[in-house]
Specification:
It is a single chain. By secondary structure, the chain is α+β, with helices and mostly antiparallel strands. The protein has a single domain (11-174), classed as Alpha-D-Glucose-1,6-Bisphosphate, Chain A, domain 4. The chain has four helices and eight strands, in the order ββααββββββαα. An eight-stranded antiparallel β-sheet has the order 1-2-8-7-6-5-4-3, with helices on one face. The protein is globular.
Length: 187
């Protein structure tokens, strides 16, 4: 189910960039009102990932192993290795690391994503939307994934510009291509 009418992104927030030579890392932090265990399940379970993430996986990410990860808009899966799975604290695979820290009655979720510097604002905007959708899923009010061309409706352009300004960079001058159908995510 995708109900974009129910979604308006909040302001660009909770993002930082770390530069180390040619390597750039996007860091997004969210305070969630849900336990680390519940957040962990949403980060690792293929059925839950399908409801919010910009990719699908063929197996649970909760243990160290090889999995096939298919990004939205990419027809071919990528062999990815889960290099660290420490439930419910740390999950690392490919160029992504998730840290979960108990915070009051909820979880402080931190995403570390190594990304090409040319697309840092693009990635920040996309992950912002995905994390908004994750929050809805965890709250029992799923709206379905907003990725690829659907981000045009979901406020991606405004977030991209806001993050580019925040990071002091120029955003890429091209837009995500619309998906023909959801099945392209589910190969």
């Amino acid at each position: 189910m995708r109900n974009l009418e129910q979604y308006t992104p909040g302001p660009a927030r909770g993002a930082d960039v770390r530069k180390d030579g040619d390597k750039w890392t996007l860091i997004l932090v969210r305070e969630l009102r849900h336990s680390p265990e519940k957040v962990w399940a949403a980060l690792t379970d293929p059925a839950q990932l399908r409801e919010w993430a910009p990719f699908v996986v063929d197996e649970n990410l909760g243990t160290a192993k090889n999995v096939k990860l298919t990004w939205v808009g990419r027809p071919q899966p990528i062999e990815t290795t889960v290099t660290r799975a420490d439930p419910p604290h740390m999950l690392e695979y490919g160029d992504i690391r998730w840290e979960l820290e108990a915070s009051g009655a909820g979880t402080r979720l931190t995403l570390w994503h190594s990304i090409d510097r040319r697309f840092i604002s693009w990635g920040a905007a996309g992950w912002h939307i995905s994390l908004d959708v994750l929050e809805r899923l965890l709250s029992g009010e799923p709206i379905g994934p907003i990725a690829g061309g659907a981000m045009q409706v979901g406020g991606w352009q405004q977030l991209n510009a806001a993050y580019a300004k925040q990071f002091g960079i120029e955003p890429p001058n091209w837009q995500p291509q619309p998906l023909k159908n959801r099945e392209s995510r589910e190969s």
